[in-house]
Design goal:
By secondary structure, this protein is of the alpha+beta class. It has one domain: Nuclear Transport Factor 2, Chain: A (Roll). It contains 3 helices and 4 strands. The N and C termini lie far apart (about 80 Å).
Length: about 180
């Protein structure tokens, strides 16, 4: 009986250890999966936002990356489709985009991700629209690079950007 009890205790300890290891592995996989998805949504979403603002393509493509509430209240996007935009008089053909992720924090119990990114847009090229060719327009204005705190929330379809707060103290040193 003494040996049977020892064997059962040994098996129970090993089962608990193996269960803990499996739980940690599943949690690590889930964490990596959410980090990767968040990074992809942030990098592709912010690049697509710049693309829509510069080229004025259909903003409906942004619904994949951003919540409807964010899109309705985004001042950069609203300005892009008005004559107050610096890019209104141009057909933008290309630009270079770079995004650097500084840190990413996942809150599993709140279903949010918060990250800090620095966005750089350079080498914007294009031509003046034909209807404005007769007027004098300066060269294409540079996009203001910036550091942002991005907040993502999880909905039924996955992660979406719900907030974008620019760091007003950030000074662009990459230009």
């Amino acid at each position: 009986m003494k040996y049977l009890r020892r064997l059962a205790a040994f098996a129970a300890k090993k089962l608990v250890i193996i269960t803990l290891i499996v739980c940690l592995a599943v949690y690590a996989f889930y964490l990596a999966f959410n980090y990767a998805n968040s990074y992809i949504i942030v990098s592709e979403g912010l690049q697509k936002r710049v693309d829509v603002c510069l080229t004025r393509e259909d903003p409906a493509v942004l619904n994949r990356y951003f919540t409807a509430e964010f899109l309705d209240s985004d001042p950069v996007l609203a300005a892009a489709f008005s004559e107050s935009s610096s890019y209104w008089f141009y057909n933008i053909s290309s630009f270079d985009y770079d995004l650097k992720l500084e840190h990413l924090r996942w809150s599993p119990f709140r279903g949010t991700v918060s990250c800090v990114v620095t966005e750089y847009v350079s080498d914007i090229s294009g031509s003046v629209k034909s209807e404005y060719a007769s007027t004098d327009h300066p060269s294409i204005e540079a996009w203001k690079s910036g550091r942002y705190t991005v907040t993502l929330i999880r909905d039924a379809k996955g992660w979406k950007i719900a907030g974008l707060k620019q760091d007003q103290l950030y000074k662009d040193t990459e230009s």
